[in-house]
Amino acid sequence: MSLLRAQRIHKSYTTGTPVLLDVSFALEKGQCLGLVGESGCGKSTLARCLLGIEHIDDGSLLFEGVPIHGLSERRLRPYRKHIQAVLQNPSAALNPKLTIKDSLLDPYLQFGDQVRLRHFQYANRHDFARQLLEAVELPAALADRYPHELSGGQKQRATIARAISIEPSVIILDEPTASLDVLSQAAVLGLLDRLREQLGIAYLFISHDLAAVHAMSQAIMVMQDGAIVDHFRKEELFDSERHPYTQELVAMFE
User: Where does the UniProt annotation place the signal sequence (predicted)?
Assistant: First the structure.
């Protein structure tokens, strides 16, 4: 059984303009599935639908075989602990009025009674924050600082620590390195790959950067104008039967 499955998802704006067209895919446990496409093609809308921020118009979303689309917030809440997100702008993800420690602990304080940690230990607030910071290769001294005191790369690592704090099954990574410089991008991608292997978390890695998607993913989907036009194993990227749009992306990649 797939961990997260989308079946024939359709979504339109209130104007009636379609943004997702017949989108289907399956994400397996521990897998990194890449989704690449140009800005405005519907990638972030799909992410918001998977996170329950937006409702789909048609189709189905299943987590471990259980339909989760169309649920009320109360009924959806038990599934939120399984699906976390790391987004493009880490500054927007961290409350500027909270210390890094308090931001890291927030998901656990929301869901701790429903979470059984396997890789971290919640002995006390300070020790738990230290473990999370160590997991993302940040010094424990940052726990008592505020977001504005951290660099962009440090803030994104902190949002990753926040996402893994309740050891979710899935993390939606929506352009997680887009706001970072080249060196920070490479370091964060390497960190994410190590965490996936260590914690057994599955990723949906969304990006306009085919090189990053290819480096991170075991399988790749290509989205154009709201539709998945290609879906293949990583090693098949350069095959001649790739969709014409995929071939355009590959030409830029090379």
Answer: none
In a domain, 6, yes or no: no
What domain count does the chain have? 1
Q: In sequence order, which residues have a C-beta less than 8 Å from that of residue 247 and are 6 or more positions away?
A: none
pTM here?
0.95
At 132, which helix (H) or strand (E)? helix 125-135
Note whether residue 202 is domain-resident: no
Closest among 250, 243, 163 to 209, alpha carbons compared: 250
Instruction: Output the six-digit token pair for 195.
Output: 């965490």
What pLDDT, on the 0 to 100 scale, is given for residue 115?
81
Q: What is the pLDDT of residues 183-241, one digit of tens each?
A: 889 999 999 999 999 999 999 999 999 999 999 999 999 999 999 999 999 999 999 99
For tokens 């080249």, name the residue.
Answer: 182
Half-sphere exposure of 221 (CA within 13 A, CB side): 22
* Per-residue pLDDT tens digits for 136-186: 999 999 999 999 999 999 999 999 999 999 999 999 999 999 888 888 899
Write out pLDDT tens, residues 96-113.
999 999 999 999 998 877
Per the structure block, which two tokens stand in for 230?
Answer: 């290609």
* Strands of the chain, DSSP E: 4-12, 18-27, 32-36, 58-63, 66-67, 83-86, 170-174, 202-207, 219-224, 227-233
| Domain range enclosing 138 | 95-167
Give domain status of residue 79, yes or no: no
